[in-house]
Amino acid sequence: MIVVIAPENDIPNEIEMLHQLFQAGLQYYHLRKPSKTYEQYVNYLNQIDKKYHNRVVVHHFHELVNAFELKGIHFQEQKRRDHIDNPGQYFKNLNMFGKTISASFHEPEELENCYFEFDYHLLSPVFSSISKPGYEGRKFDVNHIDKTIVGMGGVTAKNLSEFEQLGFKGVGVLGGIWQSENPVESFKNLYQLKHSNGNQ
Prior knowledge:
By secondary structure, the chain is an alpha/beta fold.
């Protein structure tokens, strides 16, 4: 699986490129825009063709799942720590039927010991980040953890096979797409490589 994380700040023609990514096969688009308000999130989602809403996972304003037919919600590390001990209370006002729940981790041990059954887990940094200079990769080996783990950090077409060898079921990519010369072509290259290896 390939998860594409939204660029933190809007870039020119972003929505147009996003539609091209969906058309090229993108199934997991993580909408993470820390500086946007709820209304700005709504405006952003309204610009995306409704037929692709079920491929969008929101990091903020989880209540958006009640207003849009989204794929799911994602817990960043601190929010997971703050709320997941009382999931019944957190989810009681959210329409989560058929939605995915995922979460971010930065330590494999914490991920392995987390009792909550997320649909998938983002673990970073596996390799040195492209979008965050100085964020050094730690080459986590997760072959011993029986959970769906998506590796993030420094994802490129060149190191895709190394993620698989380290036990990751997929990759999460941000800088490798949005900081490339041609984001849509970069995604297509990753997509073809993943599928040529028999992965989804």
